[in-house]
Amino acid sequence: MAYSEDHIALAAEYALGTLDADERAQVETMMAADRDFLAVVQAWEFRLGALNQMVGAVEPRPELWERIRAAIGHSEPQAPIVLPDAPPAAAAEIAVSEPVAVPVIDDSNVIRLAAQARRWRNLASAMTALAAALIAMLAVEVFQPDVLPGSLRSKPRVQVVEVRTPQAAPVLSGQYVAILQGQAGAPAFILTVDGTTKNFTVRKIGAPPEAGKSFELWLISDKLPRPRSLGVIGGGDFTARPVLSGYDQDVINGATYAVTVEQAGGSPDGVPHSTPIYTGKLIETVPPATPAPNR
Protein backbone atom coordinates (compact mmCIF):
# COMPACT_ATOMS: atom_id res chain seq x y z
CA MET A 1 0.00 0.00 0.00
CA ALA A 2 1.27 3.50 -0.89
CA TYR A 3 1.38 5.96 2.01
CA SER A 4 1.58 9.75 1.94
CA GLU A 5 4.62 11.66 3.06
CA ASP A 6 2.81 12.59 6.27
CA HIS A 7 2.23 8.94 7.11
CA ILE A 8 5.90 8.06 6.45
CA ALA A 9 7.11 11.01 8.55
CA LEU A 10 4.68 10.01 11.31
CA ALA A 11 6.10 6.47 11.31
CA ALA A 12 9.67 7.83 11.48
CA GLU A 13 8.84 10.11 14.41
CA TYR A 14 7.20 7.22 16.22
CA ALA A 15 10.40 5.21 15.83
CA LEU A 16 12.38 8.23 17.10
CA GLY A 17 10.05 8.76 20.06
CA THR A 18 9.32 12.46 19.38
CA LEU A 19 5.51 12.24 19.16
CA ASP A 20 3.22 13.45 21.90
CA ALA A 21 0.75 11.13 23.64
CA ASP A 22 -2.16 11.77 21.22
CA GLU A 23 -0.02 11.23 18.14
CA ARG A 24 1.50 8.04 19.56
CA ALA A 25 -1.99 6.73 20.27
CA GLN A 26 -2.97 7.54 16.68
CA VAL A 27 0.05 5.69 15.27
CA GLU A 28 -0.50 2.66 17.51
CA THR A 29 -4.14 2.49 16.39
CA MET A 30 -3.05 2.58 12.73
CA MET A 31 -0.42 -0.12 13.43
CA ALA A 32 -3.04 -2.38 15.01
CA ALA A 33 -5.44 -1.94 12.08
CA ASP A 34 -2.96 -1.87 9.17
CA ARG A 35 -0.17 -4.48 8.97
CA ASP A 36 1.47 -2.64 6.06
CA PHE A 37 1.78 0.51 8.14
CA LEU A 38 3.18 -1.63 10.96
CA ALA A 39 5.87 -2.82 8.52
CA VAL A 40 6.72 0.81 7.66
CA VAL A 41 7.20 1.63 11.35
CA GLN A 42 9.34 -1.48 11.90
CA ALA A 43 11.48 -0.58 8.88
CA TRP A 44 12.18 2.84 10.42
CA GLU A 45 12.99 1.23 13.77
CA PHE A 46 15.49 -1.04 12.00
CA ARG A 47 17.14 1.87 10.17
CA LEU A 48 17.35 4.07 13.23
CA GLY A 49 18.42 1.21 15.49
CA ALA A 50 22.03 1.74 14.40
CA LEU A 51 22.00 5.01 16.37
CA ASN A 52 21.42 3.10 19.60
CA GLN A 53 24.23 0.67 18.85
CA MET A 54 26.68 3.48 18.10
CA VAL A 55 25.87 5.45 21.27
CA GLY A 56 26.50 3.83 24.64
CA ALA A 57 24.62 4.54 27.85
CA VAL A 58 26.09 7.32 30.01
CA GLU A 59 25.47 7.26 33.75
CA PRO A 60 25.44 10.78 35.37
CA ARG A 61 28.06 11.37 38.03
CA PRO A 62 26.84 11.14 41.67
CA GLU A 63 27.68 14.80 42.39
CA LEU A 64 25.27 15.91 39.65
CA TRP A 65 22.31 14.52 41.61
CA GLU A 66 23.55 16.28 44.75
CA ARG A 67 23.69 19.59 42.93
CA ILE A 68 20.16 19.10 41.59
CA ARG A 69 18.85 18.37 45.09
CA ALA A 70 20.67 21.40 46.47
CA ALA A 71 19.25 23.62 43.72
CA ILE A 72 15.72 22.41 44.46
CA GLY A 73 16.15 23.06 48.19
CA HIS A 74 17.39 26.67 47.69
CA SER A 75 14.66 27.69 45.26
CA GLU A 76 12.23 30.33 46.52
CA PRO A 77 8.62 29.28 47.15
CA GLN A 78 6.25 30.15 44.31
CA ALA A 79 3.90 33.08 44.95
CA PRO A 80 0.21 32.17 45.15
CA ILE A 81 -1.86 32.78 42.04
CA VAL A 82 -4.21 35.80 42.46
CA LEU A 83 -7.28 35.91 40.25
CA PRO A 84 -8.57 39.35 39.07
CA ASP A 85 -11.73 40.75 40.73
CA ALA A 86 -15.01 40.12 38.99
CA PRO A 87 -16.37 43.15 37.09
CA PRO A 88 -19.30 45.06 38.59
CA ALA A 89 -22.82 43.81 37.82
CA ALA A 90 -23.70 46.91 35.81
CA ALA A 91 -20.68 46.54 33.60
CA ALA A 92 -21.53 42.91 33.04
CA GLU A 93 -25.07 43.84 32.03
CA ILE A 94 -23.76 46.41 29.58
CA ALA A 95 -21.40 43.85 28.14
CA VAL A 96 -24.27 41.43 27.70
CA SER A 97 -26.69 43.96 26.31
CA GLU A 98 -24.25 45.26 23.74
CA PRO A 99 -22.87 42.34 21.78
CA VAL A 100 -19.59 42.97 19.98
CA ALA A 101 -18.77 41.26 16.73
CA VAL A 102 -15.53 39.26 17.08
CA PRO A 103 -13.86 38.01 13.88
CA VAL A 104 -13.34 34.23 13.79
CA ILE A 105 -10.07 33.04 12.25
CA ASP A 106 -9.84 29.47 10.97
CA ASP A 107 -6.32 28.45 12.02
CA SER A 108 -6.70 24.71 11.37
CA ASN A 109 -4.60 24.91 8.23
CA VAL A 110 -1.90 26.86 10.05
CA ILE A 111 -1.81 24.29 12.85
CA ARG A 112 -1.67 21.40 10.38
CA LEU A 113 1.15 23.02 8.34
CA ALA A 114 3.08 23.78 11.52
CA ALA A 115 2.78 20.17 12.64
CA GLN A 116 3.93 18.94 9.22
CA ALA A 117 6.90 21.34 9.27
CA ARG A 118 7.89 20.17 12.73
CA ARG A 119 7.55 16.55 11.67
CA TRP A 120 9.72 16.99 8.58
CA ARG A 121 12.32 18.92 10.58
CA ASN A 122 12.51 16.04 13.03
CA LEU A 123 12.74 13.53 10.20
CA ALA A 124 15.50 15.52 8.48
CA SER A 125 17.44 15.69 11.75
CA ALA A 126 17.05 11.93 12.20
CA MET A 127 18.27 11.18 8.68
CA THR A 128 21.26 13.50 9.16
CA ALA A 129 22.15 11.72 12.39
CA LEU A 130 21.72 8.32 10.73
CA ALA A 131 24.00 9.31 7.84
CA ALA A 132 26.63 10.58 10.27
CA ALA A 133 26.39 7.34 12.27
CA LEU A 134 26.82 5.23 9.13
CA ILE A 135 29.87 7.26 8.06
CA ALA A 136 31.37 6.89 11.54
CA MET A 137 30.65 3.16 11.51
CA LEU A 138 32.36 2.75 8.11
CA ALA A 139 35.40 4.66 9.36
CA VAL A 140 35.60 2.50 12.48
CA GLU A 141 35.21 -0.66 10.39
CA VAL A 142 38.15 0.34 8.18
CA PHE A 143 40.56 1.55 10.87
CA GLN A 144 39.43 -0.17 14.12
CA PRO A 145 37.13 -3.11 13.27
CA ASP A 146 37.57 -4.69 16.71
CA VAL A 147 35.65 -1.82 18.35
CA LEU A 148 32.39 -2.73 16.57
CA PRO A 149 30.08 -5.39 18.02
CA GLY A 150 30.13 -8.71 16.24
CA SER A 151 26.74 -8.17 14.58
CA LEU A 152 28.02 -5.04 12.80
CA ARG A 153 31.34 -6.43 11.58
CA SER A 154 31.49 -7.33 7.92
CA LYS A 155 32.12 -10.98 7.22
CA PRO A 156 35.57 -11.59 5.75
CA ARG A 157 35.44 -12.78 2.18
CA VAL A 158 37.55 -15.83 1.57
CA GLN A 159 38.39 -16.64 -2.01
CA VAL A 160 40.09 -19.92 -2.77
CA VAL A 161 42.44 -19.73 -5.72
CA GLU A 162 43.74 -22.95 -7.18
CA VAL A 163 47.18 -22.61 -8.68
CA ARG A 164 48.22 -25.40 -10.95
CA THR A 165 51.97 -25.86 -11.12
CA PRO A 166 53.08 -27.46 -14.35
CA GLN A 167 54.64 -30.81 -13.72
CA ALA A 168 58.30 -31.04 -14.44
CA ALA A 169 59.11 -33.17 -17.40
CA PRO A 170 60.48 -36.51 -16.28
CA VAL A 171 64.18 -36.96 -16.79
CA LEU A 172 64.62 -39.90 -19.11
CA SER A 173 67.79 -41.79 -18.35
CA GLY A 174 70.46 -43.15 -20.60
CA GLN A 175 72.03 -46.59 -20.28
CA TYR A 176 75.76 -47.28 -19.95
CA VAL A 177 77.69 -50.53 -20.36
CA ALA A 178 81.27 -51.58 -19.58
CA ILE A 179 82.86 -54.81 -20.76
CA LEU A 180 85.23 -55.99 -18.02
CA GLN A 181 87.90 -58.16 -19.60
CA GLY A 182 91.44 -59.40 -18.98
CA GLN A 183 94.65 -59.09 -20.96
CA ALA A 184 93.65 -62.03 -23.11
CA GLY A 185 90.70 -60.02 -24.38
CA ALA A 186 87.98 -62.42 -23.36
CA PRO A 187 85.07 -60.67 -21.56
CA ALA A 188 84.58 -61.84 -17.98
CA PHE A 189 81.83 -59.48 -16.72
CA ILE A 190 79.34 -57.00 -18.24
CA LEU A 191 78.59 -53.93 -16.11
CA THR A 192 75.43 -51.91 -16.88
CA VAL A 193 74.57 -48.58 -15.21
CA ASP A 194 71.26 -46.68 -15.25
CA GLY A 195 71.93 -42.98 -15.82
CA THR A 196 69.06 -41.79 -13.58
CA THR A 197 69.03 -44.12 -10.60
CA LYS A 198 72.79 -44.87 -10.81
CA ASN A 199 72.02 -48.48 -10.00
CA PHE A 200 74.34 -50.98 -11.62
CA THR A 201 74.18 -54.64 -12.48
CA VAL A 202 77.14 -57.00 -13.00
CA ARG A 203 76.61 -60.08 -15.16
CA LYS A 204 79.13 -62.88 -14.97
CA ILE A 205 80.08 -64.24 -18.40
CA GLY A 206 83.40 -66.11 -18.40
CA ALA A 207 85.28 -65.57 -15.15
CA PRO A 208 86.05 -68.94 -13.55
CA PRO A 209 85.51 -68.94 -9.76
CA GLU A 210 88.43 -69.59 -7.38
CA ALA A 211 87.98 -71.68 -4.27
CA GLY A 212 88.06 -69.64 -1.04
CA LYS A 213 88.28 -66.38 -3.00
CA SER A 214 85.82 -63.63 -4.01
CA PHE A 215 85.68 -61.26 -6.93
CA GLU A 216 85.39 -57.61 -5.80
CA LEU A 217 84.46 -54.65 -8.03
CA TRP A 218 86.32 -51.32 -7.72
CA LEU A 219 85.82 -47.79 -9.05
CA ILE A 220 89.12 -46.06 -9.97
CA SER A 221 89.09 -42.34 -10.85
CA ASP A 222 91.73 -39.61 -10.96
CA LYS A 223 89.17 -37.43 -9.07
CA LEU A 224 89.37 -39.76 -6.07
CA PRO A 225 92.41 -40.29 -3.84
CA ARG A 226 92.18 -44.09 -3.96
CA PRO A 227 90.06 -46.90 -5.46
CA ARG A 228 86.59 -47.27 -4.00
CA SER A 229 85.02 -50.68 -3.42
CA LEU A 230 81.65 -51.29 -5.05
CA GLY A 231 81.19 -54.60 -3.26
CA VAL A 232 81.74 -58.29 -3.77
CA ILE A 233 80.38 -59.83 -6.95
CA GLY A 234 77.99 -62.62 -5.97
CA GLY A 235 78.20 -66.23 -7.02
CA GLY A 236 75.12 -66.00 -9.26
CA ASP A 237 74.94 -64.79 -12.83
CA PHE A 238 73.71 -61.30 -11.87
CA THR A 239 74.67 -58.94 -9.03
CA ALA A 240 72.75 -55.65 -8.64
CA ARG A 241 73.77 -52.82 -6.31
CA PRO A 242 72.78 -49.14 -5.74
CA VAL A 243 76.13 -47.95 -4.34
CA LEU A 244 76.90 -45.59 -7.22
CA SER A 245 74.27 -43.10 -5.99
CA GLY A 246 76.90 -41.39 -3.81
CA TYR A 247 79.09 -40.43 -6.77
CA ASP A 248 78.93 -37.58 -9.25
CA GLN A 249 77.82 -38.45 -12.78
CA ASP A 250 81.11 -37.26 -14.26
CA VAL A 251 83.02 -39.57 -11.91
CA ILE A 252 80.78 -42.49 -12.84
CA ASN A 253 81.08 -41.93 -16.58
CA GLY A 254 84.84 -41.33 -16.63
CA ALA A 255 85.98 -43.94 -14.11
CA THR A 256 87.73 -47.26 -14.75
CA TYR A 257 85.95 -50.29 -13.30
CA ALA A 258 88.20 -53.11 -12.15
CA VAL A 259 87.79 -56.58 -10.61
CA THR A 260 90.31 -58.05 -8.17
CA VAL A 261 90.52 -61.41 -6.48
CA GLU A 262 90.23 -60.99 -2.71
CA GLN A 263 89.82 -63.29 0.25
CA ALA A 264 86.39 -64.78 0.78
CA GLY A 265 83.95 -62.01 1.61
CA GLY A 266 86.04 -59.23 0.07
CA SER A 267 88.78 -56.87 1.22
CA PRO A 268 88.70 -56.44 5.02
CA ASP A 269 89.99 -52.84 4.97
CA GLY A 270 88.49 -51.31 1.80
CA VAL A 271 91.81 -51.47 -0.07
CA PRO A 272 92.51 -53.88 -2.99
CA HIS A 273 95.04 -56.59 -2.08
CA SER A 274 95.76 -57.85 -5.61
CA THR A 275 96.30 -56.48 -9.08
CA PRO A 276 93.09 -56.02 -11.12
CA ILE A 277 92.58 -58.87 -13.52
CA TYR A 278 89.56 -57.49 -15.36
CA THR A 279 88.99 -53.79 -16.26
CA GLY A 280 86.72 -51.70 -18.48
CA LYS A 281 85.14 -48.27 -18.99
CA LEU A 282 81.52 -47.26 -19.50
CA ILE A 283 80.17 -46.46 -22.91
CA GLU A 284 76.72 -45.04 -23.64
CA THR A 285 74.51 -47.61 -25.36
CA VAL A 286 71.05 -45.97 -25.06
CA PRO A 287 70.95 -42.12 -25.01
CA PRO A 288 68.38 -40.26 -22.89
CA ALA A 289 65.08 -39.84 -24.72
CA THR A 290 64.23 -36.23 -25.60
CA PRO A 291 60.89 -35.20 -23.99
CA ALA A 292 58.18 -34.02 -26.36
CA PRO A 293 57.76 -30.20 -26.43
CA ASN A 294 54.81 -28.80 -24.47
CA ARG A 295 51.94 -27.58 -26.60
What order do the helices and strands come in, and which of them pair?
Layout: H1 5-16, H2 21-33, H3 35-54, H4 62-74, H5 89-97, H6 108-143, E1 175-181, E2 187-194, E3 200-204, E4 213-220, E5 228-232, E6 238-241, H7 249-254, E7 256-263, E8 278-281, E9 283-286
Antiparallel strand pairs: 1-2, 1-9, 2-3, 3-6, 4-5, 4-7, 7-8
Helix pairs in contact: 1-3, 1-6, 2-3, 3-6
Could you explain how this protein is built, in words?
With 295 residues, the chain is an alpha+beta fold. It has two domains: 97 residues, no CATH class; 111 residues, Immunoglobulin-like (Sandwich). The chain contains seven helices and nine strands. The strands form two sheets. Strands 6-3-2-1-9 form a five-stranded antiparallel sheet, with no helix packed on it. Strands 5-4-7-8 form a four-stranded antiparallel sheet. A hairpin with a 7-residue loop joins strand 4 and strand 5.
Helix content: 25-40%
Rounded mean pLDDT is 76
How are the strands of the biggest sheet laid out side by side?
A: 6-3-2-1-9
Q: Percent of residues in beta strands?
A: 15-25%
String of helices and strands: HHHHHHEEEEEEHEEE
CATH superfamily of the largest domain: Superoxide dismutase, copper/zinc binding domain
Largest sheet: 5 strands, antiparallel
